[in-house]
Amino acid sequence: MPEAKKSPVAKSTATLTFDNKSVELPIYSPSAGPDVIDIRKLYAQGDVFTYDPGFTSTASCESTITFIDGDKGELLYRGYPIDQLAEQSSYIEVCYLLLYGELPSAKQMSEFRQRVTRHTMVHEQMHYFFRGFRRDAHPMATMVGVVGAMSAFYHDSLDITDEWQREVAAIRMIAKMPTIAAMAYKYAIGQPFVYPRNDLDYAANFLHMCFSVPAEPYEVNPILSKAMDRIFTLHADHEQNASTSTVRLAGSSGANPFACIAAGIACLWGPAHGGANQACLEMLREIGTVDRIPEFIARAKDKNDPFRLMGFGHRVYKNFDPRAKVMKESADEVLDLLGIHDNETLKVAKELERIALEDEYFVEKKLYPNVDFYSGIILEAMGFPTSMFTPIFALSRTVGWISQWKEMIADEAQKIGRPRQLYVGATKRDYVNISKR
Ligand code: ACO
Q1: Which residue's CA is minimally distant from atom 18 of ligand 1?
Q2: Residue from 82, 302, 315 whose mutation best tests the ligand 1 pocket (most atoms within 8 A of CB)
Q3: Which residues are 76's β-sheet partners?
Q4: Which atom of ligand 1 is the closest one to the Cα of 311?
Q5: pTM reported for the whole predicted model
Q6: Which atom of ligand 1 lies nearest, measured to the CA of 238?
Q7: Which of 39, 82, 259, 408 is at 20 to 30 A from 189, Cα to Cα?
Q8: Residue 239 in contact with ligand 1 by CB distance below 6 A
Q9: What backbone phi and psi angles, to 5 degrees, belong to 200?
Q10: At CB < 8 A and 24+ separation, what contacts does 257-260 make?
């Protein structure tokens, strides 16, 4: 188990001087990354707020889970580099690592795997809940609703003050999310729901629930399930990104874990976040052929055109997203395995990447391919429609959300998240009756 969290010790102080006032602010040194100035007492001592829309310079919490070095293009889960985990580990082992802080022993691994697989089925009545949705609903819309509704089914894991209940909620969420995502898919295409198979591993079971039908036998291709597992691993956690911060903010009020994860799913859906994988493949298809790339590069650079190169750029990475490198290799492997040797979308993606990486605009702004750039190509080759890309991201990220949520609840310094504002609206004025306006 990881070491108990100690309160940070200030290594020095920063002095903020303004309006004839001077405030001393403690500075903490993290185990990795830039120093952090503690401004918690700033309002009490200096009667000022800080202003940081988008949290570009603000650390919102202490965490021991994931670290990103955006300049080096490095991503560590509990200290382990993502490329090593993607190559040598498995998603279920990564789940253990993220939740508990250390790699499991063989015994711990087998117990954990068994606990997760014992929770893969959803309450039978949830089937009726799905049926309330229109068939053409986006699977993310269905997932937000169904995951939120889990609070109405699992009453014995809602008490967030009980450590055991928090643990059960975490296991349930990791176990049931593939079932829910696969059900959302089956519902959208009008096929019967497929129950989980606990003799299969995590990724193989998900593929089975998505692609098998009762009418004929279905064999999961082990190379495809390995690629699926790797996609899950690459998306498992990513520090204090928008959806994780949403989960933490929702959880800071004491909301139950299922409601918090539903909030995270809603946030992930946006095209600037998890929805980018769907948007990216749609963009690559729209470009269609290599000769049209310059036209789209020019649009991405045009200040008057809202178009952006989807799958490019990142708030934190100012170098290659390390996940994109692994994803590119996987795309080659999967397409090769499936005998797809002349994939126009992959050709467009590779050429677009090459051109953008040499283009002054992208070089100067440090815009590199992110995880979403190649993931859509793999998922499409596996047989998933674009609408399933973001639900697959959501199921992979669930372990990250729940690990961060658990860490937050156990943190004694945790308070309800409540940012302040720079108010620029009307000052106090008297109400005027409608007849006089
Ligand atoms: N194409 C063209 N220009 C871009 C792109 C892009 N994809 N991304 C950023 N820029 C430009 C911006 O126009 C801006 O230019 P300016 O300084 O001249 O105004 C500059 O680069 C900085 O961009 P910001 O939007 O300020 O950077 P921010 O950190 O807020 O945004 C984001 C990061 C949202 C990921 C952005 O790069 C983007 O929209 N990318 C496309 C969507 C995408 O791929 N999202 C997935 C992110 S990864 C994930 O969630 C898993």
Answers
A1: 303
A2: 315
A3: 67, 81
A4: 44
A5: 0.91
A6: 51
A7: 259
A8: no
A9: -95, 155
A10: 257/157, 257/158, 257/160, 257/166, 257/169, 257/170, 257/173, 257/402, 257/405, 258/147, 258/148, 258/149, 258/150, 258/151, 258/154, 258/158, 258/169, 258/173, 259/148, 259/151, 260/401, 260/405
372 is catalytic: yes
Contact 275 CB / ligand 1 (< 6 Å): no
From ligand 1's centre to the CA of 302, what distance in Å? 13
- Report CA(55)–ligand 1 centroid distance (Å): 15
Give 32-80 pLDDT, tens digit per residue: 999 999 999 999 999 999 999 999 999 999 999 999 999 999 999 999 9
Is the torsion defined by CA of 425, 430, 433, 437 positive or negative? negative
138 classed as catalytic:
no
209-254: pLDDT as tens digits: 999 999 999 999 998 999 999 999 999 999 999 999 999 999 999 9
